[in-house]
Hints:
Elements lengths: L3 E7 L5 H13 L3 E3 L12 E3 L4 E7 L3 E8 L4 E7 L17 H14 L11 E4 L4 E5 L7 E7 L4 E8 L12
Antiparallel strand pairs: 1-5, 2-3, 4-5, 6-10, 7-8, 8-9, 9-10
Amino acid sequence: MHGVRVRWAPLGRGDRRRAANALVRDMTGAALRHGPCVHCGGAHGVPRLDGGVDAVSLAYTASHVFAAVGAGVHALGIDAECGDPADAAGVERLRAGATLRDWTRLEAVAKADGRGLALDVATVRIESDAGARWTARVPGAPHPFSGADLIGPAGVVLSVARAAAPAGQADPATR
């Protein structure tokens, strides 16, 4: 996806935040910071980079930390889940028959949208040509989101979403 870099690293026995910080510092040279949590105010909210130059998003599985960094991207989200893309998502608020791939796309969009799981993901409409690239439309969002399904570590379903270009402009992510 144009302007977005994604990397992952195995999680050791240490703190997953420390692993995320090391991964992001290796990618960008900048320190990773977390804003306040919207629920409790703790320092584990939306991740940001020192200097605020790039957008960053994080995801974790039991075995890996994932980071997406976007230069010139103002909204970015990544999600990773263990399993097969065709597995049932098992999330009550999704439509019947939703897959793990559906879920990683929706969660990546929810992160890029900024509302996270406060967003009613059942209202998000994803258009795909059955390929790895897709577009998501979120009610109330000023722009669509472009997304991509990525190849990650074995047994991990990985999707990333970013704000698409404003209406009337070509989205460089689709070139």
